[in-house]
């Protein structure tokens, strides 16, 4: 890529010390001689496209907007899943507490049942 103007095969241009401007990589064989008193090698007005003139930038910005929307939606979905996990954990804690409390109630009911059975056996043995 770093060739002098003689190496580019520009067809008879053999001046040394002159600056040449290349508009794009595709136009390497079309070299334009820069004016001798030029202060700006690359004018900004020609090199920076105006918004909306280049369709590639529009599709690129549309792509980034779509990507941003997808990231926001995925963030919302992940937040919702985390919320559901926390809610499910809280409900499981409630169910565990209820089961523990019901287990104690069942143990109390078994004790009461045993006491009733013993009393009934005593009454039955007294009647016989």
TrEMBL record:
Membrane spanning stretches: 62-86
Keywords: Membrane, Transmembrane, Transmembrane helix
Domain of life: Eukaryota
InterPro entries found in the cross-reference section: DUF4577
UniProt name for this protein: Leucine-rich single-pass membrane protein 1
Taxonomic classification: Eukaryota, Metazoa, Chordata, Craniata, Vertebrata
């Amino acid at each position: 890529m770093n060739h002098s103007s003689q190496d580019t095969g520009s067809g008879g241009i053999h001046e040394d010390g002159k600056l040449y401007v290349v508009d794009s990589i595709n136009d390497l064989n079309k070299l334009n001689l820069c004016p001798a008193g030029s202060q700006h090698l690359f004018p900004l007005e020609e090199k920076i496209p105006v918004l909306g003139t280049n369709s590639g930038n529009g599709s690129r910005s549309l792509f980034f907007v779509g990507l941003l929307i997808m990231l926001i939606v995925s963030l919302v979905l992940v937040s919702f899943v985390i919320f559901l996990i926390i809610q499910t954990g809280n409900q499981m804690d409630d169910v565990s507490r209820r089961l523990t409390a019901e287990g104690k109630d069942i143990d109390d009911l078994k004790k009461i049942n045993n006491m009733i059975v013993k009393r009934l056996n005593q009454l039955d043995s007294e009647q016989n």
